[in-house]
C-alpha cells in the first residue's frame, strides 16, 4: 500500500495535481508516504511558480514580444520537465523493491 500511495502522489499530475498530494500529506500516517507526497506537491507547484514572471510579461511588459516568446519557451521546458519528472518518480517509486526498511 505504501508504494501505491507514494506513486499516486506523483501520478496525480494527471488527475488532481495539488489536491491529492496535500490530502495524502495531511492524512498519511507513514513517514515515507508523507515524504513522497510533499516532494510531489513541490514538483507540481514549481511550474506554476515559474508562471508568475510569465504573467508579468503578458500583462505589464507586453512591448517586448521577443522576450515574451523566449520566456514562454522557457516555461514550456520547465513544465514539460516537471511533468516528465513526476512520471519517472511515480514509476521509480512503484517499482522500487526495498519498502520494508525504515528511513
TrEMBL record:
Protein name: Heme/copper-type cytochrome/quinol oxidase subunit 4
Membrane topology per record: Multi-pass membrane protein
Keywords for the protein's UniProt record, in alphabetical order: Membrane, Transmembrane, Transmembrane helix
Compartment list: Membrane
Record field: transmembrane: 12-33, 45-62, 68-88
Chief location: membrane
Organism this protein belongs to: Paenibacillus shirakamiensis
Entry-linked InterPro entries: MamF_MmsF (IPR019109)
